[in-house]
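A quick aside before the break. I want you to see a complete sequence-to-structure record at least once, exactly as it would be stored in a machine-readable document. Don't worry about memorizing anything.
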Amino acid sequence: MTEPLTRVEAISSNWISSNGEIAADVDPDVAIDLIYGPLYYRLLFRHLPIDPGFAEAIVRRALHGLAAGASAV
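That is the input. The structure line, written in tokens, reads:
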């Protein structure tokens, strides 16, 4: 079960590193954890489904915070 996730993470990591939309100083592993963390939490601890709207909201907020030009906190 972890093999498909590892493949998705590798593809995501390459995309995050190369597309230029994410700030250059962002660690791809941190970016992936920001996206996957809430999804796993929802599934494992809250036992709730992940609908497309929820997943999209998580990705939008994470990418907004990681975007090149976003102010660092």
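Two observations worth writing down. Residues 2-66 form a domain with the Tetracycline Repressor; domain 2 fold (CATH 1.10.357.10). DSSP finds three helices and no strands in the chain. We'll return to this after the break.
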